[in-house]
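Thread: "does anyone have the structure for this chain?"

Original post by V.I.:
We have the sequence but no experimental structure in hand. Need at least a predicted one for the grant figures.
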Amino acid sequence: MRVVWLTYANPMSEPITAKCPCAHCDTHLEFPVEAAGVVVTCPSCQQETELFVPATGALAPETELTAEHILRAFRGPVPKTRVSVLYQVGLLVVAVTMAILPLIYIAMIVAAGWGVYFWATHFDFLLKSSGGGPRVYLFKLVIYAAPLFAGSVLVLFMIKPLFARRAKHSQPLAVNPEVDPLLHAFIRKVCETVGAPMPKLVDVDCNLNASASFRRGALSLFGNDLVLTIGLPLVAGLTMQQFAGVLAHEFGHFAQGFGMRLTYLIRRVNAWFARVAYERDAWDEWLEEWSAGSEGAIVFIVLSAQCAVGCSRLLLKLLMYFGHLIGCFMLRQMEYDADSYESKVVGSACTEDTFRRIHVLAKVTDAAYKDMRVGWNLGNKLPDNFPAYLLRHDQAVSPGKRTKWEDTMGLDPSGLFDTHPSNGDRIRRARQAGEPGVFHLTAPATQLFANYEVVSKQVTQLHYADDLGIPMVMAKLVPDLGPGKEAEASAAPAEETPPSGKPFGRLKLKGRE
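Reply from O.Q.:
Generated one for you, tokens below.
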């Protein structure tokens, strides 16, 4: 096969090169990697073809890219995705409606409180009449006290969610710009390419996910105080091009500043309703214990209170589903907008590949946690580097199973209550866009970190202790633990049984946001 060298102005004396075939005559074109994405005329057939770094990798495995090579490979910036006025008005209407829902809930609390007051002041005649004997009077007392007690409990349980605090989350590991300058330079370049603000803080955790959010919640709503959270398992499984696409998606949300702030309001109200409707606390446990130990007329009163609490939960769920229904359509549109930035930066083909890759990694993650549970139950053994452990599981997946996972990922349609479109719908949108992309480097994304292995091990231990609730004093961290080796590594019996009995019960896997 003929190879043609294409020369570009490059200040580096020894540029890192790549090779790709001409789209028309298959002549191999050799070029500096920073020229990826450029359309050139093939010297052989004189047809125009786009230069790209093949996914199989034209770079030598031992080649380490410099910051200049990586940053020069961006051929951006990309144009902003235009949003119609009608869409912005619709988003505003949904956000205002979501803001009104908590006010409706407060109005219902006031109505319930007034009902308790009305019963207490207008039905006290039941206690003033003593005719009919002590049994009749006791019956009247129960009739008067049961609604009064149930209504009071109802009001208290309805007020309680207004002051409910969010559950504490594990503290992620912050990345120091001086320790990982290449990573921060890469993130800044993606932000410049999509026209989004640079995050003030970059955190890493052990989830298969990446997200950009307001650093201090509502306090950062009217500024550009952002935090980027990167899941190291995601970095381990993606190329630089795919990782750049994921970042472009996240920052694409913030490129639409007005829409992102309204979306934040919609998500927060939805999350609040879901949390207070389903979470249980000490008050709920106290009411259940009292019901179990009550006898006689007290049982009727407590059951009335439980019925009232059940009604308040039902009310919260109805408001939650209503708000979720009207908000999900707009949230899905926001995801499509963010996907458009991903396609513009890395190309539609890479966007589709990334969806497939993350879908497979999610399947592999499920299998990895199941195997980890075996090792823990047999001998308290856990891998010392979870992202590396995940990659070993990924490499063990048979080609047939991998193909099946990829072929079936687009079969599920988007539902009315889905905040994200289905993978199939997102891939179809990406294909329709037909974007060539402005960044095509396919080196491992782990090269962006100065010492990826050390950071992975640190985040792994934080994940075990904070996310999974595993007592680390009992854990035995094992290097190079892979699929099928858990039982072998755990041949020695465990010295203790974990106090919770369910060390992995609190784990929740996240998808792309």
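V.I.: this helps a lot. The chain has 16 helices and eleven strands.
O.Q.: and Residues 1-14, 55-62, 492-503, 505-511 have pLDDT under 50 and may be disordered.
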